[in-house]
Amino acid sequence: QVQLVESGGGLVQAGDSLRLSCAASGRTVNNYVMGWFRQAPGKEREFVAAISWSGGRIVYADSVKGRFTISRDNAKNTVYLQMNSLKPEDTAVYYCAADGIYRRPRVVVSTYEYNYWGQGTQVTVSS
């Protein structure tokens, strides 16, 4: 089993930056696609960013492209989401996820493709 724990959320002002971390335990996630998703009140969970097991392929949602950066440190079994130029519309609970598929050759963006999820961390951006 894989346990994922997100951290780094908080309350910030528009234009500020935050760095989210997702620490994995129980099993290494080094061979899995890792993704970040978010869910705002009253909305469905949406894709934010994902990174292949090797780190060589990265996909971003259009809404965060150029502002957010996903990365992974396989030595630490940890994935990060650097969020710059935050906007009020970025306010949501952010979730880390692992697909659980050994060295999948592509990056996936659907929630249905991910088998392990963290509990989420709240990000609130005030205007």
Short description:
This protein has 127 residues and is mainly β.
Task: Explain the overall architecture.
This protein is mainly β. The protein has no helices and eleven strands. The strands form two sheets. Strands 2, 4, 5, 6, 9, 10 and 11 form a seven-stranded mixed sheet that branches. A four-stranded antiparallel sheet has the order 1-3-8-7, with no helix packed on it. A hairpin with a 6-residue loop joins strand 5 (46-51) and strand 6. The protein is globular. The model has no long low-confidence stretch (mean pLDDT 97).
Give the number of DSSP strands.
Answer: 11
Major beta-sheet overview: 7 strands, mixed
Rg for CA atoms: 13 Å
Q: In sequence order, what are the helices and strands, one letter per element?
A: EEEEEEEEEEE
Approximate shape = globular
Estimated share of beta-strand residues: over 45%
Q: What's the assembly state of these chains? A: single chain
Number of continuous helical runs: 0
Mean pLDDT: 97
Low-confidence stretches: none
> Distance N terminus to C terminus?
40 Å
Quickly give the structural class. Answer: mainly beta
Report the helical percentage: under 10%
